[in-house]
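PROTEIN DATA CARD
Card holder: DHH family phosphoesterase
Chain length: 465
Origin: Methanocorpusculum vombati
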Amino acid sequence: MGFIEDISTATGMIRNADAVTLVSHIDADGITSEAITAQAISRLGIPVTPVFVRQLEPLTMRHVPNDDTLKIFTDLGAGQQNLMEEAGLPADNVLILDHHINQPAPGGTQYSQVNSQFYGPEYAKCSAAGVAYLVARKLDPANADLAELAVVGNVGDMMARETCGLVGIARWIADDGVESGRVRITKGLNCYGLSTRPLHLCLANSDDPILPGISGDPKAAADLLIRLGIYEKPSDQRVWEDLHADEAKLLASVVAEQMIANGESTERLFAELYFFPHETEKSPLRNASEYATMLNACGRWAKPKIGEAVCFGDRGQQYREAEHMLRHHRSIIRELCEYILDTGVTDAGSMQWIHTGDAYPDTIVGIGAGMALSKLDTTKPIMVLCNVADEPDLVKISMRTYEKVLRCGVDLQAALAVAAAEFNGAGGGHNIAAGAYIPKGCEDDFIRRVNELIAGQFAAGAPHR
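Structure generated from the sequence above:
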């Protein structure tokens, strides 16, 4: 079936449901896709019960009730249909809204699904939040007020990263948000923290692209801003949104000239930016990337329902709790990044790796891996292994890389899926960021196998290197 048929089936199942159990992932895309779907269904007068899981696996399936409610899986489910079948969930009682690779149930159970991977390149760069929004919009056009959450989910799941902006149906959703007045789209520097971080820290923390003479050096960044008349003194706290149009243009021009002078491409210097004008200025909810970080903080520290409350519009006690979790999250991530850099990684040949043991929670090691990679060998993917506190027999694997490595033929999702299956584990994710769980004790052999697979990918993509 095509998109029209699939989305019609999905909305029909929702309308006919007496009650819904909504199962979702704990990251920004999972929380926003759950919040979009829950609000759209609640507006129909249908009761919704949320269930958040770190991973859909045999042990977490026990949190999915064996009752007559319609089970909707958002941001997971496409690759775990075997678990649904093993749990005895009937096809007419399950709906999957996802964007991950589809793995049909081995027994032939045909679960209804709206999956952006099914409908061609126009839909390929659309996360689960985008899929959830399309279903919500079909249920009632008034749900267009939820577009901003879909933008947050798409940006949080790196749908804008490779192309420095949303494309295809994800960009259409952002335009829908513009029409409702809840999203503002601009072009600007491809930096993080444009609503909350002082501008010199935004520039100094830039790692994609790396800004010659600026990245990693807050003093040099502040000196540049003073020289341009944007700062009066090094301690100024102006953020990107504070700049007048001529100041933003001047800064962008000077940084571009500096990159060119150092032989660097400016291809990734500029990006499309997504702001929410109704949110408070200089708050983490003011733009899509920082909003997504707050939701990730909630989910990674086992409080996804706090993130859900923020998505539902809470700006009181729950939001203050989310702010606290965001500060804690950033502090621990910085510590983890420093730990990786201080301890050092092992070069396996085609990738680099480190095992952090019990030092940090498995829910955040992937984020730390991505941050540390900018200060390591960026031509090779990084793998971080860690123990899982509540699953002592398992080891969590997280891998990250850059777009330039993808252009060489590397696909982390493919490598981890193959290797994990060979070791009786499970892996998945995306080409640029992927994860897996494997049995403890096979780490060395697993590392060698993944290194072999990535070496093969590099070799196959050799003409592009």
